[in-house]
Amino acid sequence: MDLLRTLCQLAAPAGNEAPMTEFLLNYVAEHQSSWRVQPQVLAGDEFQDCIILVFGQPRTAVFAHMDSIGFTVRYGQQLVRIGGPRAETGYRLVGRDSQGDIDCTLTVDEETGELGYEFTRLIERGTELTFHCDFRETETTVQSCYLDNRLGVWNALRLAETLENGIIAFSCWEEHGGGSVAYLAKHIYEHYGVRQALISDITWVTEGVHAGEGVAISLRDSLIPRRAYVERIRRIAQAAGIPHQLEVEGSGGSDAKELQHGAQPWDWCFIGAPEDHVHSPDELVDKRDIDSMLALYQVLMEKL
Fold first, then answer.
1. Cα–Cα distance, 232 to 239 (Å, whole number)
2. d(CA 1, CA 289)
3. How far, in Å, CA of 298 to CA of 124, rounded?
4. Where do the TM regions start and end (predicted)?
């Protein structure tokens, strides 16, 4: 879990993923010699802050978004959301502007709902603030801000250790409307002919999806994947005996939105561990669900 702790501590809100990009490129350079296959690394201006790792002869691509939710300083002491963070008076926010490090407190006006902050000085407009990371681990759980989606990134990096054929794409902006997967998908489809995807992201604990009962295979959210593809995934999961749950939602979305709306014929399925206390500083995931998530991705990348 040390790697997951490090990922959660990195500030990389949507639009400013560069710190995470730098970390991941350094991580790949340092660790790929011990991986089963050394990937081709695609990064740079053509891909903005995104990264594509190409292993062997790929058939399937895994998409994991690097960004997180957060807040942007507006005018005076006003804040605006990046994505959809939970906001409660007293949350600890951190960041940095030209005057130095920031460790401030979130405020929520009870009457208007307007977001602000308490700090010893005014923070420069445009400064990004993120939840202070308090990473807590027990024998059975991990709890921290930004498990969504640093856990999806962790899953992709662990998958890379044994992956022989496949693509891992680290995307940007997912928490605030997306925008990067469209050009990543186009490049992957045109250069490698790959058109089936898995979305390595984190879902919610609900009345039908429970912590500790296995990774969730989503049958639908606000969008509906092609049933034939999802059924293939279900058969592979059942044959492998990997604990999993089926999720059915009528709202929400992921990087799959851009695959569904794109010009290429992508199949996709969202597969992720469920978490409680979503989009808060206290996101909570059961380690059994983390284990089953990684195990299922390893099997699917071999069998699909």
1. 11
2. 14
3. 45
4. none
The alpha carbon of 172 is separated from its chain's Cα centroid by a whole number of angstroms, namely 9
The Cα 270–Cα 256 span in angstroms is 8
Mode of pairing for the β-strands spanning 100-108 and 115-118? antiparallel
d(CA 143, CA 160): 24
Q: What is the pTM of this model?
A: 0.97
Cis ω on the peptide bond leading into residue 149 (within 30° of 0)?
yes
| DSSP letter assigned to residue 13 | B
What sign does the CA torsion over 273, 277, 282, 288 have? Answer: negative
User: Average pLDDT per run of 10 along the chain, which is 304 residues long?
Assistant: 97 98 98 98 97 98 98 97 98 98 98 97 98 98 98 98 98 96 98 98 97 98 96 98 97 95 97 98 98 98 98
What DSSP character marks residue 217? Answer: E
What is the C-alpha end-to-end distance of the chain, expressed in Å? 28
- The three-state secondary structure class of 63 is strand
Biggest CA-to-CA distance, the chain: 59
- Report the pLDDT value the prediction gives residue 140, as an integer from 0 to 100: 98
Q: In this predicted structure, what is the pLDDT of residue 268? A: 98
